[in-house]
Design a protein that fits this description.
alpha/beta; single chain; binds iron/sulfur cluster; 16 strands; binds flavin-adenine dinucleotide; five-stranded parallel β-sheet
Length: 463
Amino acid sequence: MANMSPQKNEMPTQAPLVRKNNFAEVALGYTEEQAIDEAKRCLNCKHRPCTAGCPVSVNIPEFIAEVAKGDFEAAYRIISATNSLPAVCGRVCPQENQCEGRCVRGIKGEPVAIGRLERFVADWHNANAEKSVQKPQSNGHKVAVVGSGPSGLACAGDLAKKGYDVTVFEALHTPGGVLVYGIPEFRLPKTIVAKEIDSLKSMGVTIAANTVVGRTVSVDELMSDEGFEAVFIGSGAGLPRFMNIPGENLKGVYSANEYLTRVNLMKAYLPDSQTPIYKAKKVAVVGGGNVAMDAARSALRLGAEEVYIVYRRSMEELPARAEEVEHAKEEGVIFRLLTNPIEINPDENGFVKSMTCVEMELGEPDASGRRKPVVKENSEFELECDCVIMSIGTSPNPLIKSTTAGLETHKWGGIIVEEQTGKTSKDGVYAGGDAVTGAATVILAMGAGKAAAKAIDEYLTQK
Ligand code: FAD
Ligand code: SF4
Ligand code: SF4
């Protein structure tokens, strides 16, 4: 019988006062009973608006129907036909703007919890299904993938399934991109990412870590000397931006990328970690996206007494996922909205002592359609803090562009590609994910990696 409750089944989570002191996963996942009950809220709409809202077109009504029947493995097969990282996407997709944002149950109540169901199915499969990944027969073609984030992994996976000999070149010592160095353990356990990478390896994909393409080897050398017939560039957008205000070089100022890399990849939160990190008492995180929420919640877990999100627009414009904002609030993160820093002030030893801020108000909409923040007159004030984490965006690193002949990029650094295929200005070279769009989402990066894999396959079979 259909479940006509206007509300989603609640997600069991660690209590806020407990979880703010540990790095274990916050959301604990549905039980089988909760998943089946939630699946029964789906109306199996013939026009499938939810699927149209998913960037990789997961067959949502079909997989949910299998969950409702209790056939979780059948549900997994349906999801994994189009989504190679369901345990990741179920956890981190901004569902409210994508699949769930289009769900008809959302008109008079809450949408079906599509993301939570996807996570449940993927976790169930990982815990229960027999693993027998077959190494596909080689087709004799070699493809290089630069970067092991979601775009690179998705591209490598799809090509490996078709028999390509794929090598993923990764600058860091651990593969996974932002999934391992950016998004914290309490939101995305690293064992999940490691499982995905293990299954790629079982399909024959080689991961060459500690290899900076553009330094260790160039894209041109990969093609001319190493025998790679095509290259996919999925090198992300890891170069942090700063505000260029006085005091940004003081001790105790981090970019969010550096702070999170120390915490996640270098495990600074573990008691026996050798990674230095400043355990501040009052932390101000400047920005309002997922990255800012992750930095703020990590700072709390490292023992900060007060953590502020300093954001120049209002709650309505906050770009972070709704669930992360909710979790941050529950854990005690303080939101200083309509506030912008203009200077970071030192103490007598050159450490951060405070931030001078101004209050903002929202004016007319700008080019992005969002109301432009303007400074309120005579609103300057001091915010006491001993650490500032800048989280105002990132852009692609110029290294690959500067070392690859004939690769065209936009002025801001994004690689220029053909929209449907990811084909760049250089023959045999494709690109996708944040390296093309600037900082975006896991699922869009994955979708771009898959589209490029299809185009590379067509290119090499027609060659
Ligand atoms: P990346 O994940 O950035 O991977 C690129 C990889 O390429 C990296 O491993 C990098 O080391 C490597 N690389 C770079 N240059 C070279 C080189 N020259 N040679 C070799 N390797 C190289 N998205 C969501 O959908 N939901 C979220 O909740 C969310 N939260 C986020 C939280 C944080 C802290 C951050 C930083 C991002 C978040 N995002 C989120 C965005 C999302 O993670 C990215 O859009 C996505 O990871 C982009 O994937 P990608 O494959 O393009 O690049
Ligand atoms: Fe929704 Fe993301 Fe899953 Fe697509 S991949 S159905 S957008 S959670
Ligand atoms: Fe089910 Fe919502 Fe999709 Fe309709 S729109 S099929 S109710 S998930």
